[in-house]
Specification:
globular, 5-stranded antiparallel sheet, 20 strands, 534 residues, 13 helices, binds 1-deoxynojirimycin, single chain, 15% strand, alpha/beta
Length: 534
Amino acid sequence: MDSIDWWRTAVIYQIYPRSFADSNGDGVGDLNGITERLDALVSLGIDAIWLSPFYRSPQADAGYDVSDYCDVDPLFGTLADFDRLLARAHDLGLRVIIDLVPNHTSSGHPWFEEALTAAAGSPERQRYLFRDEPTDWQSVFGGSAWTQVPDGQWYLHLYDVSQPDLNWRSADVRAMFEGVLRFWLDRGVDGFRVDVAHGLIKDDTFPSYPETPLGVLAKANAPYWDQDEVHEIYRSWRAVLDEYTAADPSRPRVMCGEANVSVPRTARYVRPDEMHQTFNFPYLTTPWDASALRAVIDASLAAYGEVGAPSTWVLSNHDVVRHASRLGYPPDSPAGAGIGIGDPQPDEELGLRRARAASMLMLALPGSAYLYQGEELGLPEHTEMPDQFRQDPNWVRKNYTERGRDGARVPLPWISSAMAFGFGAGEATWLPQPTGYGRYARDLQEVEPTSTIGMYRSALALRHEFDLGRGDLEWTSEPGAAVLAFRRGELQVICNLGPDPVRLPAGAELLLSSSPDVEAQVPTDCCVWWRAQP
Ligand code: NOJ
């Protein structure tokens, strides 16, 4: 933890607390489970962790439905457990970023309960978006975005009916969240990942907009996404964070926005007085195609560079099909909305080979990278989960047409021969693990140098050694080529997405390869890092 702008180059590991490690055997991961196993992440070489929500919540959307922003849900532990986790992480040199869910509360939040019993037009209702008439807006999870309450009014919920949207023009809402920021900053967190950062302000003329709100990238013209007024909220939060940073400049507190919009719109969220980072979803959604990847890399570096912010890079998270499965499909992949029994299945071997290459490509780029728990194991999606286990509200709200996100959220395999593959003390797991997960267990990979975890560890060590998070990228391949080749100072990269093997330059010293079959040539779907021999 030595750099005051650590976030510019950080590799940040997303922990999905439900599925990381279960210390009490109830089948759901918890904070103590995380604390006990932080060592495994330190040895991987990451800089920070981001924790998905662990707050009090009815768990209608796996914790993204918060009923108390300043407490830990008993499912995950206690505030004291959180403090221990934070202290242990800091002792180990890891920064800790927590999730902030400001777009909506849970319908179980005391404010929403008060709003329901209060009259139309009351201050209690003004904290949310109640109207006498609904509009034609659609929920991200399917169906109308409006639900009627007994006195005839309607409230807006861009997500599940149990996630009422807050009114960010309300002074109460602003004051409450400033208090939430301070509560966690006072406890010592290093920053926040801001959920639905592009959605807090809605066009208050409530125009007609019947379209479905989301593929993975929000549509640009929707009256509830990416409205100009959101930026002023982030400026006010930045001032709060900067107060804490000024009090201890060795520990800058940071924000990363889930601003699910296109590049260059994302860059507007990271102007110098706003957030520090935004997720690069355009990168995540780019197909395995050299020209398309080169274009998104160039566009990202240019757009973020213009506002003096680092680009970020990401391939997987808890909302999308894991990249080891996504890349196992042909380019017109059906993988976007989740995979289940009866769906075309990915080619597991091809997916893993490409996932390893894609991860090495990503980790060679300048800026900050996000990893999703399990990707360091090359973990595939659970693509054949029986439907009766599904818990994602998407599945029900979209009338059982989209399998949704459960396949990416399955409890991690730690020990191949243990019950629940060592996820917890007992046999229980809140989602079933596929039998094939045993092959990916961490204990098997730890002793195998060419394993996926071995590759990530070597890549992160080289990333530090060559300071790959900083500096420029200089292409050495031609635009339009099926190979991506570039120079990062002394270290050079060749990622072969084409059908033919590519010769390594004479005298090249191979530093790391995504597949074991590299000698003089880089085969298809392989990424290598090399340098010229002195
Ligand atoms: C984005 C989160 O990542 C996702 O899991 C959640 O369902 C929505 N925001 C709503 O909070």
